Amino acid sequence: MPIPDQQHVRPIARSIVAEHALSLGLDPCFYGLSESDLGYLEQTCPRHRSVRVLAELVRRLFDAGEPEHFNV
């Protein structure tokens, strides 16, 4: 898999969020990251440039602010 850059962060993060939601038994359409979270992930991507690190950051962001990430 090629190393992701900033243009890949949002689609990859959305995919990770959907997988995480399903692993928790939640419907992915009600589960997401805020615009500021996605911006943070884009800003940090040039430093780590790793899907594994991106996945961990996505899970940590979501778990840190779980109630605010539901799109109701």
Radius of gyration: 12 Å
Helix content: 55-70%
By secondary-structure content and strand pairing, the structural class works out as: mainly alpha
Number of helices: 3
Q: H/E order of the elements?
A: HHH
Uncertain segments are: none
**In whole angstroms, how far apart are the ends?**
34 Å
Shape: globular
The biggest beta sheet reads: none
Strand tally: 0
Mean pLDDT: 83
**Beta-strand fraction estimate:** under 5%
Description:
The mean pLDDT is 83. The chain contains three helices and no strands. The chain is mainly α and 72 residues long. 64% of the residues lie in helices and 0% in strands.
What tags apply to this protein structure?
globular, 72 residues, mainly alpha, 3 helices
Question: What would a concise description of this structure say?
Answer:
The protein has 72 residues and is mainly α.
List the helices and strands and how they pair.
Layout (H helix, E strand, L loop, with lengths): L5 H18 L11 H14 L2 H14 L8
